[in-house]
Amino acid sequence: MRHLCATATLVALATPAMAEPDYAAAVKADYDRDLKGLWDWFHRNPELSFKEEKTAARMAAELRRVAGMQVTEKVGGTGVVGVLRNGAGPVVLVRADMDGLPVEEKSGLPNASTVRQVGVDGVEAPVMHACGHDVHVTAMVGTARRLAALRDRWQGTVVFVVQPAEERVGGAKAMLKDGLYARFPKPQYAVAFHVDAERAAGTVSAAEGIQYSSSDSIDITVPGIGAHGASPHMGKDPVYMASQLVIALQGLISREQQPLRPGVITVGSFHAGLKHNIISDQARLQVTVRANDEEERARLVAGIARVARGVGELNGMPADKMPVVTVIEGTPTTINDAALAGRLNAVLATTLGADHVAPFTQKGMGAEDFAYYVQPDTRVRGYYFSVGGTPADVVAAAKAGGPAIPSHHSPQFKVSPEPAVVTGAVATTAVVLDLLKPGAAS
């Protein structure tokens, strides 16, 4: 969710904070009355990617309560689509992801998850909303309610997409493959947000360019020739070869990549062997690859295959026992339409106050499969923004050397649903109202 070079223009910093729009108070009242309890339910009941049956059913029920909403379930697996029409005009897609993660929650929250679930991989695991998707779906409900109540201020169609499996970067692709852009009104614009634990609550930020990096997950199998640990010369040690590979892969970044062109190769998993004195016949690596453009992405993926084969050849492995590299899933770079982002950043500065719209700087190489909705061949213009999820004093204390803020995907992860849900709903409502205001320029 961060980029080293791309920044969003901080709109009119010297301007005093603007008065909140009238619907902001309505969103806050809705949170106090109903959305708070809805977030609590989602947080207590997380579900794994493509297994979000209860979450999808609850979201479908909530969207059906919105006057005029047409709801379709089981799109791309567990996905839900709600269509809210209000006369002729542009179409805006609003997306929220809904899956949790296989993490045992240790946040200390009174509504901490105790759920366990068998995932699509057949493995039972504890489940936690360790990335804030409970905030996203709750805010979507608040947004849908506000837009239905404000029909006199907009004209067109809003398509609400409740997406499965963002964490496996497969949900967006699955919904598109199932006809999202053919079975439902095709959007001119796509909008989404992500809560950010490192950002102060009540603030938002969006890049006028790259918002997230690409991501590819790669499995590497390194064959060996098994032997007794006391006689390594009688075999070929896959642990030794895989260790060489782990080190050699970093050369693709440090020695072959242009210094000012970001990229990451991380080996997240290394498994081999079962006993102290046995040289196994196989090692397995799991690798994530990140880049900020398709050319660099392709170069890194191809480089991994080249280096893996080189390690096999270096160790004298026969042709039928070369390392096997498999790209199993991935997502392109998420790039905001620059002109659209500039326009909507200004809208949010007016809506929330200029001091609540922060400049965007990419600090890492997180990824998002929202990118599939806005690929160049779709001709859909995208706007993805971040919403702060941690009280400002806690963020300030962490920056001053105090306790670190638990990261996304951590067992200790937690965000403040108020104001994160309210800010997300108010900001999304403001963006859609601007895109669909009668006579709005595209």
UniProtKB/TrEMBL annotation:
Its cofactor is Mn(2+). Gene3D superfamilies: 3.30.70.360, Zn peptidases (3.40.630.10). Mn(2+) binds at residues 131, 133, 167, 194, 409. Residues 217-308 form the Peptidase M20 dimerisation domain. GO terms for molecular function: hydrolase activity; metal ion binding. InterPro entries: Amidohydrolase, Bact_exopeptidase_dim_dom, Peptidase_M20, Peptidase_M20_dimer. Pfam families: M20_dimer (PF07687), Peptidase_M20 (PF01546). Keywords: Hydrolase, Manganese, Metal-binding, Signal. This is Amidohydrolase.
